[in-house]
Amino acid sequence: MERLDAFMARANAAYYAARDPFADFTTAPEISQVFGELLGAWAAEVWEAMGAPVPVLLAEAGPGRGTLMADALRAVGQTAPAFAAALRLHLIETSPRLRAAQAERLPAATWHDRIAELPPGPLLLLANEFLDALPIRQFIRRDGAWRERFVADGNFVERSPSPDCPPIGETDASPLPLWAWAAKQTKVGGGVTAPEGTVIEHPSAALPLISALAARIAAQGGAALFLDYGPAVSAPGDSLQALRNRRPADPLAEPGSADLTAHVDFATLAEAARAAGADTYGPEPQGLFLARLGLFQRTGMLARQNPGRMEELRAAAARLAEPDQMGRLFKALAVCHPALPMPPGFAE
Ligand code: SAH
User: Fold this and answer.
1) Under CATH, which number does the domain 9-134+204-336 receive?
2) Confidence band for 193, pLDDT divided at 50, 70 and 90
3) Which atom of ligand 1 is nearest to the CA of 132?
C-alpha cells in the first residue's frame, strides 16, 4: 500500500523514463513555434526590468523535447541579442531519455534533477505543463471526517492519516497548515462543510517547490512563469487523470504505462509564493495571456512569410487561445521579485 503521491511519483518517473510522452499527449510548444517565441520575448522583457543582470540564469523545468526553449532562444537571438549573450541555460529534467532529446536541440544547457539544485543568482524560469505532473495527495470525506487515499493493487483504499503521513493540522511539506487549507478548499458556499464523498487534493510536491522557488526569487531576484491547466479558484474534486495513446485510462492501473496529471491548484500555489516573499500575477487564462504577448500578430507575420502554412498556423494559434480549446482551462501564473513591475501578458 502506497500513499497516492508516492504512487504518482513512482508511476510518472517510470513513465517519463521509458515512454515517449508525446505519443500520448500534445503540448502548446508542439502545437505552434510561436508559443516558445513569445515566452522567450517575455523572459527578455522581464530581464530588462530586472536591470539586465549579466550573467542571468534562464531555466526551464520539465522541458520535454526542448521545443519551447529552442523556439525561445531562436527568437531572443534575433530580437534581444544582449539577453541572448547574458543568459546561462539550465534545464530541470529527471528523465534520462528526455535529457538526451533536449541535448540534441540545446547542447549548451546544464541539467539538474531539481529546481533547488540551480546555482545561485538572478533567475528567469519557464515551465509549461510541469506542475501538473507533480504528485498530489487526496483526501476523501467519510462519516464526517477526512480519510486519505492510498493505492493498493490498482485500487484506492481509504485510511485515516497513517504514521508515515504528517497529521492533518500540521504538515512539514506545506507552508500552509493542512487543516486550514482543507477547510478553505471544502467551503461549498457560505461555510458549509464538505458533503460525504468529497475529494480534496493537496499539491504535496508543488507547494514546497513553489515556496522554495519564491523565497529564492525574493532573495536573489528574477521571476518564474508557469503555464498549466487548472481552475482559477481552488475547488474540491478529483482531477487525477491518466492518458495512454491519447485516450483517458485508469490512473491506478499499470503504473508507468500512462501519463498521470492533476489540475494545478493555482490559488493555493500563489498564496504559498506570496507567503514566501514573492509577488504573484495571475492565474490568467492562457488565451488572454498569449494574445497580449502578440500571439496573433506573430502568427500573422509568419503566415505572410509562409503563405502555404497560413491555415496550419492560424489553426494552431486558435487551438492555444480559443476559450473552448486551451485558452481558458490553461492559465499563466508568474512569481516575481517584489521590486519588479507587472510582467508582460498580465493585467490589473
Ligand atoms: N514542457 C514540455 C513537456 C511537458 S511534459 C512541453 O510543454 O512540451 C512534463 C515534463 O516534466 C517532462 O519533461 C518530464 O520529464 C518532466 N518532469 C515530470 N516530473 C518531473 C519532476 N518531478 N522533476 C523534473 N522533471 C519532471
Assistant:
1) 3.40.50.12710
2) low
3) 9
Q: Which of 50-59, 165-174, 244-253, 316-325 has the lowest mean pLDDT?
A: 165-174
Closest ligand 1 atom to Cα of 9: 22
Sheet of 110-112: strand order equals 110-112, 87-92, 56-61, 123-128, 222-229, 330-336, 279-285
Q: Is 29 in the pocket of ligand 1 (CB under 6 A)?
A: yes
DSSP alpha helix (H) spans, the chain: 4-18, 28-31, 33-49, 67-79, 81-86, 96-105, 178-185, 206-220, 266-275, 286-293, 295-305, 310-321
Please give the grid coordinates belonging to residue 291: 494574445
Kindly report whether the global pTM for this prediction surpasses the value 0.70. Answer: yes
Secondary structure element (H or E) that encloses residue 155, with its range? strand 155-159
Ligand 1 lined by 16 (C-beta under 6 Å): yes
How many Å apart are CA 181 and CA 194, to the nearest integer? 13
Measured CA angle at 295 (ends 89, 247), to 5 deg: 80
Pocket flag, ligand 1, residue 236 (CB < 6 Å): no
Domain boundaries, the chain: 9-134+204-336, 137-202
Residue 244's DSSP bridge partners are 247
User: Is the shortest distance between the CB of 229 and ligand 1 below 6 Å?
Assistant: no
From the CB of 261, is ligand 1 less than 6 Å away? no
DSSP state of 39: H
Give the chain's mean pLDDT.
90
CA–CA separation, 208 and 193 (whole Å): 27
Q: Which residue has the higher pLDDT, 222 or 177?
A: 222
Nearest to 259 by CA among 12, 26, 3: 12
Position 143 scores a pLDDT of 86
Weakest mean pLDDT among 135-139, 192-196, 279-283: 192-196
92-127 pLDDT per residue, tens: 999 999 999 999 999 999 999 999 999 999 999 999
The 10s digit of each residue's pLDDT in 152-187 is 999 999 998 655 444 443 333 444 445 455 555 555
